[in-house]
Design goal:
By secondary structure, the protein is mainly α. 79% of the residues lie in helices and 0% in strands. It is built from 14 helices and no strands. The chain has helices at 2-14, 21-27, 31-36, 41-62, 69-85, 88-102, 106-114, 120-143, 145-161, 163-169, 182-185, 190-210, 213-237, 243-265.
Length: 266
């Protein structure tokens, strides 16, 4: 039962899906439970990726077969994922771009990242990230509908698992008093990482079984490289990570997975 409670807590934290009433009472809440829910972040990716893939497929099949059909499907599936998560990770990407782009000084960069307003660097990062997602998903859909749907599911799952590595190897440097991610970032245990790996492994097996292992290898390799680059960036500039850094890493790894899948589709 704790498995389900921790999963529901992760869904509550990372999506706009309401967990209320008797279900919320049954789920419960504590700092230890929130920390344990980190193992199920990739499980939230199954939910978000599944909805995004479903919207993509429905729009793709409902519209006339034109050159713009994959593009419309990519836009609306991205809208669905943003509505489902409330743009939680996109907000982190914008904050990180504003902080690291706005100042070379570590402390000043951290202060900028806490500002809720979006600056020029954040706006540019957000716009380019959305363009990259939509264009890559449109390209994958133009190649094969099943490929686009599989990439959406696997990309959302794997990109939520990889940032957990940062929690394991880097210290949390956000504002401990106000950071929502602090209980999550205190530590992540080996068993929790193993549980997160199982969530990711299931998605990768599904992709490899549905399509071809090449897409998993190419997408996973690009997402792994993106994780390495983001980790080095945060280690050098911030000497650690924040909740926004985890969100930005999810976004970059998701785009990198789509890019790898697109390379494999050529």
């Amino acid at each position: 039962m704790n498995f389900i409670r921790h999963y529901l807590l992760a869904v509550q934290f990372f999506t706009r899906i309401p967990i209320t009433g008797r279900l919320a009472q049954w789920t419960g809440f504590s700092t230890a439970m929130l920390r344990a829910s980190a193992a199920h972040f990739p499980g939230v990716g199954w939910l978000v990726g599944g909805v995004a893939a479903g919207v993509y497929a429905l729009v793709f099949m409902a519209l006339p077969d034109t050159l713009f059909t994959p593009l419309v499907a990519a836009v609306l599936s991205t809208v669905a994922s943003v509505l489902l998560t409330g743009g939680f990770h996109e907000d982190g990407l914008a904050d990180v771009a504003d902080g690291l782009g706005g100042s070379a000084d570590r402390q000043r960069a951290l202060e900028i990242m806490k500002d809720s307003r979006v600056g020029a660097f954040g706006a540019m990062a957000l716009m380019l990230a959305l363009l990259a997602k939509v264009s890559l998903l449109a390209m994958l859909g133009a190649s094969d509908l099943l490929l686009a749907c599989a990439a959406l599911l696997a990309g959302h799952v794997l990109s939520r698992g990889l940032p957990l590595v940062l929690i394991r190897v880097l210290p949390h440097v956000g504002d401990a008093a106000s950071s929502k991610s602090k209980p999550l970032a205190d530590q992540i245990s080996g068993p929790a990482l193993a549980a997160a790996f199982l969530w990711c492994f299931g998605a990768m097996v599904l992709v490899a079984w549905t399509l071809d292992a090449t897409f998993f290898i190419a997408g996973g390799a690009c997402a792994g490289l993106a994780l390495f680059w983001m980790g080095r960036l945060f280690e050098r500039r911030l000497q650690g990570f924040t909740g926004d850094a985890l969100g930005a890493t999810q976004q970059v790894c998701e785009i990198a997975f789509y890019l790898g899948a697109a390379f494999a589709a050529v």
